[in-house]
């Protein structure tokens, strides 16, 4: 039962570089989400997807791009990383609307 | 805007005692679910308990129970017989069911310390 896998677990990148965070789930869950976690802000939604090829913006989408060509994958790309994007990023999935999420283990991203 | 408020940034409880974490939320929707998540130092997000808004009965999971007051939009978490392993950040969240925007909205969290 592999569940939901995020990679890498830690990443350091330079300002201006493009970086992609990967998320893969093995359950064929319809819904997938990307959140960022920052001290004092809790978890804030970046993007979400209700199904393959359907994505929508969340609360803090600026500077991020997502795609979902396959149900099981939902990569998050920072097109030109900035220091303000230093954060812990969580991917999550759920089967139905009333379900809680199952979270990945998170990626700690540092932009220097 | 739909929001979740956790007014206690930090709390402390002695081992074996009971502690209650507060949460209030604001939504105009009538159909939604409420959740409490635990995040230990490992960073993993763990679902603690789930409550359907249409149910009056409060949810219970072993030592964890909630006090759900729909009219007051309050959803507190009670931890009984606290253990050292309960030390973590706790997040309250809700999820509406209408429309395509069905996603969890989180509070800012309460850090729980458990002392001997």
Describe the structure.
The complex is a heterodimer of chains A (112) and B (116). Chain A is mostly beta strands and 112 residues long. Chain A is built from no helices and eleven strands. Chain A has one domain (4-106): Immunoglobulins (Immunoglobulin-like). Chain A is globular. Chain B has no helices and twelve strands. The radius of gyration of chain B is 14 Å and the shape is globular. In chain B, the strands form three sheets. In chain B, strands 2, 5, 6, 10, 11 and 12 form a six-stranded mixed sheet that branches. Chain B has a four-stranded antiparallel sheet with strand order 3-9-8-7, with no helix packed on it. Chain B has a two-stranded antiparallel sheet with strand order 1-4. Chain B has 116 residues and is mainly β. Chain B starts with a strand and ends with a strand. Chain B has a single domain, classed as Immunoglobulin-like (Sandwich). The mean pLDDT of chain B is 93. Classes of the chains: A mainly beta (112), B mainly beta (116). Chain A binds chain B through residues 31, 33, 35, 40-45, 48, 50, 56, 58, 88, 90, 92, 97-98, 100-103, 105-106, and chain B through 4, 33, 35, 37, 43-45, 47, 50, 52, 91, 95, 97, 100-109.
Summarize the structure.
The complex is a heterodimer of chains A (112) and B (116). Chain A has 112 residues and is mostly beta strands.
Overall number of strands of chain A = 11
Number of strands of chain B: 12
Main sheet makeup of chain A: 7 strands, mixed
By CATH reckoning, the class of chain A would read Mainly Beta
SSE topology string of chain B: EEEEEEEEEEEE
Q: What fraction strand of chain B?
A: over 45%
Through-space gap between termini of chain A: 36 Å
Cα end-to-end separation of chain B: 41 Å
CATH hierarchy: architecture of chain B: Sandwich
Characterize the biggest β-sheet of chain B. Answer: 6 strands, mixed
Shape, principal axes of CA atoms of chain B: globular
Range of helix content of chain A:
under 10%
CATH-derived topology of chain A:
Immunoglobulin-like
Supply the helix-strand structural class of chain A: mainly beta
Number of domains of chain A: 1
Q: Quaternary arrangement of the chains shown?
A: heterodimer
The whole-number mean of residue pLDDT values of chain B reads: 93
């Amino acid at each position: 039962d592999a569940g939901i896998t995020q990679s890498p677990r830690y990443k350091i990148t330079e300002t201006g570089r493009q970086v992609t965070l990967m998320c893969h789930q093995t359950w064929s869950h319809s819904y997938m989400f990307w959140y960022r976690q920052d001290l004092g802000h809790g978890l804030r939604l970046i993007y979400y997807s209700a199904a393959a090829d359907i994505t929508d913006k969340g609360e803090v989408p600026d500077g991020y791009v997502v795609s979902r060509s396959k149900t099981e994958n939902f990569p998050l790309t920072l097109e030109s990383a900035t220091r303000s994007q230093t954060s812990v990023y969580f991917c999550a999935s759920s089967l139905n609307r009333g379900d809680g999420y199952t979270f990945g283990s998170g990626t700690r991203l540092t932009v220097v | 805007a739909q929001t979740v408020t956790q007014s206690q940034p930090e709390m402390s409880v002695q081992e074996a005692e009971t502690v209650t974490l507060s949460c209030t939320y604001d939504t105009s929707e009538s159909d939604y679910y409420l959740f409490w998540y635990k995040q230990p130092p490992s960073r993993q997000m763990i679902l603690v308990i789930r409550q359907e808004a249409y149910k009056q009965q409060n949810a219970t999971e072993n030592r964890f129970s909630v006090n759900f007051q729909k009219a007051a939009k309050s959803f507190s978490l009670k931890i009984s017989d606290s253990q050292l392993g309960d030390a973590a950040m706790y997040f309250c969240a809700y999820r509406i069911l209408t429309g395509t925007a069905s996603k969890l909205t989180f509070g800012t969290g309460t850090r729980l310390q458990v002392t001997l």
